[in-house]
Amino acid sequence: MAARAGGLMLGAALDALLADPARRHPVAGFGRAAGRLERLLYRDDRAAGALYTTLLLAAVVVPAAAAERAGARTRGSAPIAPAAPVAPAAPVSPVAPIALADSVAPWAPVVMTAALTWVVLGGASLRRQGRRLGAELRAGDLAAARARLPTLCGRDPSRLDEAGVARGAIESIAENTCDAVVAPLWWGAFAGLPGLAGYRAVNTLDAMIGHHSDRYERFGWAAARLDDLVNLLPARLCALATCACAPVVGGSVADAFWVMRRDGRSHPSPNAGMAEAAFAGALGLRLGGELRYPYRVEHRPELGFGRPPRGADVLAAARLSGAVSALCLAVTALAGGTAGALLAAGLRGLRRACCPRGVGGTCPALRQGGSRR
Hints:
Function: Converts cobyric acid to cobinamide by the addition of aminopropanol on the F carboxylic group.
GO molecular function: ABC-type vitamin B12 transporter activity; threonine-phosphate decarboxylase activity
Subcellular location: Cell membrane
Strand content: under 5%
Number of domains: 1
Low-confidence stretches: 80-84, 86-90, 92-104, 358-373
Largest sheet: 2 strands, antiparallel
Radius of gyration: 25 Å
Protein name: Cobalamin biosynthesis protein CobD
Helix content: 55-70%
Number of strands: 2
Mean pLDDT: 83
Strand order of the largest sheet: 1-2
Membrane topology: Multi-pass membrane protein
């Protein structure tokens, strides 16, 4: 668990420094593979969508679990130094390879966790696009801001004014602070590599097919419901962290918490509404209302009690997202490490109670020829 927490923090640092890979992003590759499989399996019913989602989820979770198990075995294995070497032919220390293995093996889980965390996180790219869009709105370049909005959300920007573009950007920043940062960290802390890979697969499938459109209303049902389930706890953590970080953007903790409690459940999504309402309260804005997508127009309840957003508010939302991400990284790493320590202590106590060690550290049942069962 310590290696897992260290890998999460290192991966988050890599995301902050490097952002997403510009080319050949593994998540984009997963999306292309999912698109090809969809052409083979698509049927306008829930069972086909559930099979499609299950196959793609297994395709990433099973290899991730195997990699984590292999890393744990590597870290737990201790090479035994050979007995006195017999006249080595070259002046090379016979324990050098063993020393190298001893020094590299403990870092394998950390490196794997850090690499996968960097791949699945998207907080740096999210904040970068938000800052650029906010700067374009502040400069009065509405056309450029409209062109950038699809990098943040799937709305039709052609008929949006400054307030509409800013509202779409802020709502997307709020929701994706959970989806791209908090939830991956949460699942990485408590489920390791399978949690990281599995969450990103579920969230990507929800973004691809979890829509209320004619094509995906039934086929995307399983992906959308699974995404709601895996985000249930991380979304509440993100919302509470947003309330705690409200002073970073000049907001009130009490106002953010009050708006979150009052308006968070009025959103059609059981998770996105919590984060969006907390952002609205922290920034002193009014979000929600009419949303125009290429496939439909939705009318959602308003969130918050403030004014309509402007370009400067998008910049503030990006700062708030960064603060929330940092706080949730600390919380999830600490919580995951604590839970792991408690679990390990409980397992050790159970092992001592069920199978006390005898002479030589061997279980008495095994010394007597008994089965491990």
